[in-house]
Amino acid sequence: MNIDWAALGSVFGVSLGASVGLVALFTLGIAGLSRRERAVAQGSGGGALAVTGAYACFAACAAAVAYGIYLIVA
Amino acid sequence: MESFSLILAIVVITALAFDFTNGFHDTANAMATTISTGALKPKVAVAMSAVLNLVGAFLSVEVANTISKGLVDESGIRPEVIFAALVGAILWNLLTWLVGLPSSSSHALMGGLIGATVASAGFGAVHGGALITKVLIPAIAAPLVAGIAALFATRLTYSLGKKSDGRAAEKGHRVGQIASAGLVSLAHGTNDAQKTMGIITLALITGGALAPGSNPPVWVIVSAGLAIAIGTYLGGWRIIRTMGKGLTDLQPQQGFAAQTSAATAILASSHLGFSLSTTHVVSGSVMGAGLGRKGGVVRWSTATRMFVAWGLTLPAAALVGAGAEAVTRLGSWGTAAVAVFLVASSAAIWKISRREVVDHTNVNDTHADGTPADGAEEPAGVITQAMAAVTPPPASPVAGDLTVTIPAQASAPAPAATPPAAAV
């Protein structure tokens, strides 16, 4: 019997890092979108940067999902 | 396929039945959080999960043979042994579904296989080391890994998203949850449908209908994929309710964090070679998300019942598997007796389940865990627990049944399995 601590450790590290990173990205994206929503509601400008940032975040998340699908298929 | 004997046909049908129970048992893993936070309508959620499971079954031709390889010595396996193992796994899946507890279908299958193998070839045929490294350690590690990840992810999403509200935020969390739930479904299809394919293929090989080392035939892939998809679509609403509402109260942010952590933990583990049970991962991440929100409460009474069920899964399925194997050894009529016993007890469990129907219409009602809808935000689990204990059975049947059924479960299947033997 030998417990594969290295595999267990890397599963732990990767899970933690990837989930926190992804959730952070996605939350930032959402924050950007709702900032734009507020800006539009108030009729003031300044939403463009927020939206661009938001879509960059979502694109990164989409890439992560695509990588996940790649891992499943491969 | 010329020598397709009756016993092989029975094994294949039983394996597909197990695949079916596996599907509806594990719908909760992918969809409980999406359903309880309202990101998807219940029926839509299970339909999506079913389709993705079906797709997943076809994605990979590499058979997930982890169950049949390494854990037990394959030389001692007859089709009857596999049949007995499946009987143990199916009954345990149905029992845990009846009381609404998420438990690992893979553990049930492994337990059944271990029990049946021990009964058939003695303890020497089971590799104790493999048991610890493949079953025990992952069972402890999975909820911790996913739980801690979900806890930090939840904390972060609340602190980063403090100023996010309104339509955009709502829609965003919905989409995020759906995407991660979809990933979990897809991964589940590739893993669990493959397990059944592996079992059927193994049975066909041991029964001499296939040459050793063959890939699963197309009809095996198609039928296993369909069985798991149909099971998923019918939905284990009882387990979904426990997972989505019973363990903690999930808000969209938490549901999103939990499901994302679960998806990454499942993918990381299957990719890095430390296989974790989907059920354990998702339960852990739901609890982690519950703890991550300020003022969030995890109902430890429900969680404890779930942990107990996890601990019992392997031994209980093993006991039934061993009993069933002993009976099948008596000859063809013994096998027939086990088959009749399986059908009868499945029917009985289904009948009992009709007393308190849980389906897509009431899956989000919270009274099952003793928590009335308006009491969900009350500070302490103590009150809700006390209510659960005091409320008469008709009002909280699941809570009432749980306390009764859990202790009984360990022994219930075993004596039930032995009477045919005793009657000889």
From TrEMBL, chain A:
Q: Which UniProt keywords apply?
A: Membrane, Transmembrane, Transmembrane helix
What's the name of the protein?
DUF4190 domain-containing protein
Can you tell which superkingdom this protein's organism belongs to?
Bacteria
- Mind telling me which residue stretches traverse the membrane in this protein? 6-33, 45-73
TrEMBL record, chain B:
The UniProt entry lists membrane topology as: Multi-pass membrane protein
Its lineage opens with: Bacteria, Bacillati, Actinomycetota, Actinomycetes, Kitasatosporales
Q: Does the keyword Ribosomal protein apply?
A: no
Q: Which InterPro entries match?
A: Phos_transporter
Q: Where is it localised?
A: Membrane
Protein name, as recorded:
Phosphate transporter
Q: Supply the source organism for this entry.
A: Streptomyces kebangsaanensis
Q: Name the family the entry cites.
A: Belongs to the inorganic phosphate transporter (PiT) (TC 2.A.20) family.
Against Pfam families, the record matches this protein to: PHO4
